[in-house]
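Components:
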Amino acid sequence: MPASPSLSPSSAAPSTPGPVAATPAGLEPVQAEFIALFVAAAEVFGVPRSLGEIYGVIYASPRPLSFQDIVDRLAISKGSVSQGLRMLKSLGAIRTAYVPGDRRDHFEPETELRTLVGGLLRDRVNPHLEQGRHRLERVGAEIVAGKGLSKTEAAVLRARVQKLENWRRKGATLLPILTRVLS
Amino acid sequence: MPASPSLSPSSAAPSTPGPVAATPAGLEPVQAEFIALFVAAAEVFGVPRSLGEIYGVIYASPRPLSFQDIVDRLAISKGSVSQGLRMLKSLGAIRTAYVPGDRRDHFEPETELRTLVGGLLRDRVNPHLEQGRHRLERVGAEIVAGKGLSKTEAAVLRARVQKLENWRRKGATLLPILTRVLS
DNA sequence: CCTCTTGTTCATTTTTTTTTGAACAACTTA
DNA sequence: TAAGTTGTTCAAAAAAAAATGAACAAGAGG
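Structure:
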């Protein structure tokens, strides 16, 4: 193993005062606080808690962390770290950094909000927007007065389909703008 | 427990000349398509599937639906419908409509996108933004060169806290604008 | 007071998601 | 080739979230 982490592993505090729950092995309070922040964010965005932890510990480190560093500082399994890192990479939330004298990959945070939000939107929202367009067309075509629907009822439903189409269009034009504003 | 849910056709209701047959699904294809749309949306926003179903069936109906109507058309329990309706009301996604000659509540969809998105943001994002501000202040104060942190390392971390603060501020100013743009 | 309808509550059950960890693959070095 | 690292995979376990349904409340009518 190369140089030891710059933040000392240290002491298991019996009980942690303050708002952050018990700090896992080898975690400074500052780091724990950072991590808590990203765990909360992970919850908001509906991604697994471990993603927040991993991104948090990377974000909280002034230098790139190796796989093993992350496993050591968070009390989670190698498997979770491996999968978490993969997801974070695919989201564009972290990137690998070269560290001289160490053949292992090291990770540092992507700090551009645009990149992060963009990655999430790309993965979660965009596919549905496209599929939604098709479904809306189909629904619009299927609404016909007749079998159980009076003429006015059909009109109400068609108006609602129109409303959905407006939503979809607005969303589709707003998302790119949003990610641009988050420069 | 394979208790077969009795498909009780609501023939007693005088104001309900329901065209919906007692098919296993109990749904017209058009309605099913609408519902699929909102189920997908529910997934995107990270709310329970049943919320999407319930909102969907209400949205797909040209006239307000009673509690019982919803239970009949979707194959989900009374309990789920009750809780789902409560959440939808608190999100501002549906409202109750008066139907003459029927003392039961009836529900119709709120079709303003602003209201829907606003409700979600209010419930999911806002609380965290506020709490995040406090945590950021605390983290900033805790970063001091010394115990394991060199001066430059502390500077890197302080810069990252600053970045987070920028994110937070941007988010806080953007959200209200966003909901306003979604008129 | 009794009964019927309408809907809510909440302890359980079911389903889905997330995490774990041991086996294993890919490399490096000797 | 052997032996040591480093990280990945994936079946199974654990945890979390959601749905169920029986008991119960609240009100209407009788």
